[in-house]
Design brief:
Chain B: InterPro entries: Bact_Lucif_Oxidored (IPR050766), Luciferase-like_dom (IPR011251), Luciferase-like_sf (IPR036661). Chain B: One of its GO terms (molecular function) is monooxygenase activity. Chain B: Keywords: Monooxygenase, Oxidoreductase. Chain B: It comes from Paraliobacillus quinghaiensis. The complex is a heterodimer. The longest helix of chain A is centred in the C-terminal third of the chain and has 32 residues. Chain A has a single domain, classed as Rossmann fold, CATH 3.40.50.360. Chain A is an alpha/beta fold. Chain A contains five helices and eight strands; from the N terminus they run βαβαβαβαββββα. In chain A, strands 1, 2, 3, 4, 5 and 6 form a six-stranded parallel β-sheet that branches. In chain A, strands 7-8 form a two-stranded antiparallel ribbon. By secondary structure, chain B is α/β, with parallel strands linked by helices. In chain B, about 45% of the residues lie in helices and about 15% in strands. Chain B contains eleven helices and twelve strands. In chain B, α1 packs parallel to α11 and α10 crosses α11. Chain B starts with 12 loop residues before the first strand and ends in a 6-residue tail after the last helix. The chains are: A alpha/beta, B alpha/beta. Chains A and B meet through α5 of A and α8 and α9 of B.
């Protein structure tokens, strides 16, 4: 199973910190998974100009192709100005309309305020749904108060991350199996 | 319709097109050489000519997994190898070419083929060629509209006075040689959506509409929008031909057709577009109202007649060779078209001459 772990911001450290915990939980529990971290802070990504994702070169090409080759994508995002950051929206814009068809997408959100809890529900899920993702419905929401010097200090958050990882793998495996059975019925 | 060399008394025209893709056969993993692929395309056109088909066209795509970048050159070999079949491009990306040179090529092609050449100009669905040829993709629309207008002007006037944004001005420029009858049929290539179709209609230009899959009713909306725009632009829609282009595959049964075709489409699209074709959508392709012409010869005849009833179009062209389809399968399809499908379609769509 190939997993792309996308850290959706090019500033700050909290989303990346939470993603590090997530990747650790994933590789410890499921050592056979092949995880690629895509931290947008480490890449120079161009804005989408409408071309096919295969035609982008350099970092942009690497990030889009890695996502398109993954069976599951775990998106980590902060909340800026009551929405997802532009860097993350740009990744969606770089991909084809049905990019997430037959792929599992799960979410982890970091935010400075509890007031942002429903932003993933109201703004991120509709985009993923439009792009045909199989969404892991429950996401992990982490407030700023749970971080201390690039570490997570709340056991509850760690438990929730563990469950997110399990749910992502479970849905990926289950969906692959259902799809295989359905496709076998077609006989072509 | 005579301007476009279409005689409706003979019924719906039937043709073949190739994008000139150069992909491995997914069943064997082997890819023939570019040389062999080009020769097979020429041979394919010869077979279509011998089977009595009306039209054969070749497209240009400037990227990996394609072999007919120089599509006008390939067409000129086809002109020499065939006798009656009309030949054209599907399509010529006018945005990234000089309309003068394109016209020179196609007028010459018309002379070589003795009046059989047509030009279908498009905007490109794969845009890698903008970088390759030194154009800015932000000018995507402006480049096409301006150069397409110039191309049509050259077709209408032998001596051209013109100035624009993307090309040096032409002052009393004589564009020669001229086609056999003075002008060429020039079409606008349109994707499935109404926006581009409306531009074609408003300018009174014949429309070539490509389609992947889905219900015929969606594409009828595009054709209706085209004709409505033509009326608003002061043109008679009855004088403007409409052509449709899409996947085709005939076999003994629809199940066999799906089986033969699917791996080629799915693997080919993965390579050229980065995403395969979902099986669920493909399975719906055999539905009588789905626009993909896949099935037994009888099912295909019924599908095409249904489309004709919905669209009232003048030409349908079939894409059979995508994704490394082996040549023996192409031969078999041409044979089924020539012996069973074409006669039935002609019989039921021929318009009685007035008077």
């Amino acid at each position: 199973m190939k997993v792309a772990a996308l850290s959706g911001s090019n500033v700050g450290s909290k989303t990346r910190t939470a993603m590090n915990y997530t990747i650790k939980a994933l590789t410890e529990k499921y050592p056979d998974t092949e995880v690629t971290l895509l931290d947008l802070a480490e890449y120079e990504i161009q804005f989408s100009d409408g071309r096919n994702y295969l035609e982008y070169q350099g970092d942009t090409g690497h990030v889009t192709k890695t996502i398109m080759e993954a069976d599951a994508i775990i998106i980590g995002t902060p909340i800026f100005q009551a929405s997802i950051p532009a860097t993350l929206k740009n990744i969606f814009d770089l991909l084809p309309v049905n990019a997430f068809r037959d792929r599992i997408v799960s979410m982890l959100v970091t935010a400075g305020s509890q007031k942002h809890y429903l932003i993933a529900e109201n703004q991120l899920k509709p985009i993923l749904g439009y792009m045909k993702a199989q969404i892991v419905q429950t996401y992990v929401f982490i407030e700023e108060a749970n971080f201390y010097r690039k570490e997570l200090t709340n056991d509850d958050v760690l438990f929730r991350i563990e469950r997110l990882v399990e749910d992502t793998v479970l849905l990926t495996e289950t969906y692959a199996k259902i799809r295989e059975e359905k496709e076998a019925e077609y006989d072509f | 319709m005579e301007n476009y060399r279409i005689d409706q008394s003979k019924g719906l025209e039937f043709g073949i097109y190739t994008l000139g893709d150069h992909l491995a056969n997914p069943l064997t993993g082997e890819r023939i050489s570019a040389e062999q692929r080009i020769h097979e395309i020429i041979e394919y056109a010869k077979l279509a000519d011998q089977a009595g088909l009306d039209f054969f066209s070749v497209g240009e795509s400037h990227q990996a997994y394609f072999a007919t970048q120089a599509h006008a050159v390939v067409l000129s070999a086809i002109a020499q190898a065939t006798e009656k079949i009309k030949i054209g491009s599907s399509s010529t990306i006018i945005s990234t070419s000089d309309p003068v040179r394109v016209y020179e090529n196609f007028a010459t092609l018309d002379l070589i083929s003795k009046g059989r050449a047509e030009l279908i100009a498009g905007r490109a669905s794969r845009i890698g060629l903008f970088d390759l040829l030194g154009y800015d993709v932000r000018d995507y629309e402006g480049l096409f509209e301006e150069k397409f207008d110039l191309l049509r002007k050259i077709n209408e006037e032998e001596v051209v006075n013109w100035s624009g944004e993307y090309r040096a001005a032409l002052n009393n420029a004589e564009i020669i040689p001229r086609p056999q009858n003075g002008s060429l049929p020039i079409w606008r290539a349109v994707g499935g959506t109404p926006a581009s179709a409306i531009k074609a209609g408003y300018a009174g230009v014949p429309m070539f509409m490509a389609h992947l899959g889905g219900p015929a009713s969606i594409f009828k909306r595009t054709i209706d929008a085209y004709r409505e725009a033509a009326s608003r632009g002061g043109f008679d829609p009855a004088q403007l031909p409409v052509a449709t282009a899409g996947f085709f595959y005939a076999a003994d049964t629809s199940q066999q057709a799906l089986k033969d075709l699917y791996p080629h489409i799915n693997e080919g699209m993965k390579k050229t577009n980065g995403q395969g074709f979902p099986k669920q959508h493909f399975a719906q392709g055999v539905d009588p109202h789905n626009i993909m012409n896949i099935g037994s010869p009888q099912e295909i005849i019924e599908k095409i007649l249904y489309q004709h009833e919905q669209f009232g179009h003048q030409r349908y062209i079939a894409q059979i060779d995508f994704g490394g389809m082996p040549f023996d399968k192409l031969m078999k399809n041409i044979e089924l078209i020539g012996s069973e499908i074409l006669p039935a379609i002609k019989k039921y769509t021929a318009k009685k001459l007035e008077g």
